[in-house]
């Protein structure tokens, strides 16, 4: 069981079987789970995705295998799966967005630059976007990103390199 600081106690390799112990075990990872959910399922409720991921992790806690990755990687892989499901549900709901007729666009250079990066990231393949989101936005290591993606570390490095190359081209400023 983890200590109050969120650090795992030596020798504990599986999620605790009781509710309070499990809550303490996942607590250090909630921020990364929320960030990843928000990045992967834009427009969906990230808290709902995290809640669904936690319910799934609780139900599957006996399947956690420390030899296959860290608790963070395991929880983020579940979160990524739940985010993909949320996106599929959103696409299937056929919701339409209606623009407000009198809304005037507001321009802020810092927001515009951030929006450019987000738009560029959205043009990446699903695999590249997952690698970028895990590595750069959820702050996972290459090894943990590989565990989330279900691939080798070399594949993660290659995927990130390809994504950076594509983003460099898309975000290139010409004067």
What can you tell me about this protein's structure?
With 175 residues, the chain is an all-alpha fold. The protein is built from eight helices and no strands. It has helices at 19-26, 30-40, 46-59, 71-92, 109-122, 126-137, 142-149, 153-171. Helix 4 crosses helix 7 (142-149). The relative contact order is 0.11. The model is unreliable at 1-12 and 94-114 (pLDDT under 50).
Brief overview:
62% of the residues lie in helices and 0% in strands. With 175 residues, the protein is an all-alpha fold.
Q: Would you list the SSEs in sequence order as H and E?
A: HHHHHHHH
Proportion of beta-strand residues? under 5%
Q: What's the helix count? A: 8
Mean pLDDT: 79
Question: Ranges with pLDDT <50 over ≥5 residues?
Answer: 1-12, 94-114
User: Describe the biggest sheet?
Assistant: none
Whole-angstrom Rg: 18 Å
**What is the terminal-to-terminal distance?**
56 Å
Percent range for helical residues?
55-70%
> What does the overall shape look like?
globular
Structural category: mainly alpha
Tally of DSSP β-strands: 0
Secondary structure topology:
Layout: H1 19-26, H2 30-40, H3 46-59, H4 71-92, H5 109-122, H6 126-137, H7 142-149, H8 153-171
Helix pairs in contact: 2-3, 2-4, 2-6, 3-4, 4-7, 5-8, 6-7, 6-8, 7-8
How would you describe this structure in keywords?
175 residues; mainly alpha; globular; disordered N terminus
């Amino acid at each position: 069981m983890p200590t109050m600081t969120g650090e795992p106690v030596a020798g504990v390799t599986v999620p605790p079987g009781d509710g309070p112990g499990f809550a303490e075990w996942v607590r250090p990872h909630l921020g990364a789970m929320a960030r990843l959910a928000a990045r992967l399922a834009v427009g969906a409720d990230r808290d709902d995705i995290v809640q669904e991921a936690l319910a799934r992790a609780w139900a599957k806690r006996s399947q956690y295998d420390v030899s296959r990755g860290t608790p963070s990687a395991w929880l983020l892989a579940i979160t990524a799966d739940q985010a993909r499901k949320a996106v599929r549900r959103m696409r299937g709901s056929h919701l339409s967005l209606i623009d407000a007729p009198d809304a005037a666009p507001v321009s802020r250079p810092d927001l515009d630059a951030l929006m450019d990066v987000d738009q560029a990231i959205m043009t990446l393949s699903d695999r590249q976007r997952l690698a970028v989101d895990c590595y750069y936005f959820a702050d996972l290591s290459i090894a943990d990103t590989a565990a989330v993606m279900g691939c080798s570390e070399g594949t993660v490095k290659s995927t990130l390199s390809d994504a950076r190359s594509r983003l460099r081209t898309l975000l290139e400023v010409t004067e």
